[in-house]
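About this split. The held-out portion is used to measure sequence recovery: a designer receives only the structure tokens and must propose an amino acid at every position. Recovery is the fraction of positions where the proposal matches the reference. Here is one held-out target exactly as it appears in the evaluation file.
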């Protein structure tokens, strides 16, 4: 029998201890991500046979799992996860699975699972040095945006986020939100706003790193992230005023320069299948995609389920 507990701030050290066992570059293995999005996904965890098992509610409203983390018999914990799904009456599925994770699962229980690749959830990995230097012809458009910003805002400043700057970040977010909804009224941003508020209300407790771009003393862009594993920094949030030419390119460069120092790679997360976001992420020329998908039981597959 698996006993799950809702994630709280008090669980940070315990959960991070399990995350540190693997050098996974997935943004999912970030306590801050779990905690700040718990309102939507209702993350909870159980300790099973030496493993951390995280369960959450998928977008379709059904429970599902993340890759179990620990040292011991992976087959045993997978069997317990399957039993939990059957006991509680939901279809077994593990989300945010990389090919390497799928190989581990397949090795533990051969020919039991089916891997489903999900392009919209591929994460984008960049070399930090590329985002800082923006060298070469392929980055000329980014340098042009930055030069335009500097020429129009010679008094620009970059600053790491402090508590005094958080209200200005929230004000910028609401302005950005209004702009997006005016263009795309079908988008749902309520959960994102809730996550953003959780981020700033618990900013210091979560040990996050953030930065703001100021022009004329006004915040025109901000970003928030953290170290994810030994060689990778993850950017959780990046917002800028659309009407300020070059603000996105500038915060991207300055944030990578000042907050991700010491890391080789930067994970800028997925594009969720949004065309404009995919175009923007590709324009920075990722060095690799962190290919992700989901795993289900072969016995559960029907002609219309994949």
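Reference sequence for scoring:
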């Amino acid at each position: 029998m698996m006993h799950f507990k809702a994630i709280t701030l008090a669980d940070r050290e315990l959960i991070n201890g399990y995350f540190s066992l693997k050098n996974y570059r997935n943004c999912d293995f970030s306590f801050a991500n779990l905690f700040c999005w718990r309102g939507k996904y209702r993350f909870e965890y159980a300790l099973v046979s030496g493993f951390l098992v995280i369960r959450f509610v998928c977008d379709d409203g059904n429970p599902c799992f993340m890759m179990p983390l620990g040292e011991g018999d992976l087959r045993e914990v997978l069997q317990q996860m399957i039993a939990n799904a059957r006991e509680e009456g939901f279809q077994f599925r593990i989300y945010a699975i990389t090919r390497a994770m799928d190989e581990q699962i397949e090795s533990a229980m051969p020919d039991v699972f089916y891997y489903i690749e999900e392009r919209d959830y591929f994460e984008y990995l960049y070399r930090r040095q590329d985002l800082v230097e923006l060298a070469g012809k392929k980055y000329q458009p980014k340098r042009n945006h930055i030069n335009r910003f500097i020429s129009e805002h010679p008094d620009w400043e970059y600053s790491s986020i402090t508590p005094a700057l958080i209200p200005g970040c929230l004000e910028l977010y609401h302005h950005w939100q209004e702009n997006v909804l005016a263009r795309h009224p079908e988008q749902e941003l309520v959960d994102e706003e809730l996550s953003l508020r959780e981020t700033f209300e618990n900013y210091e407790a979560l040990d996050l790193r953030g930065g703001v771009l100021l022009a004329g003393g006004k915040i025109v862009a901000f970003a928030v992230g953290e170290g994810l594993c030994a060689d990778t920094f993850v950017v959780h949030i990046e917002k800028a005023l659309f009407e300020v030419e070059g603000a996105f390119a500038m915060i991207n460069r300055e944030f990578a320069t000042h907050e991700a120092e010491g890391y080789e790679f930067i994970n800028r997360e997925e594009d969720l299948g949004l065309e404009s976001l995919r175009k923007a992420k590709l324009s920075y020329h990722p060095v690799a995609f962190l290919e992700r998908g989901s795993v289900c039981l072969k016995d559960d597959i029907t002609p219309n389920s994949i």
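Annotator remark: The longest helix spans residues 166-183.
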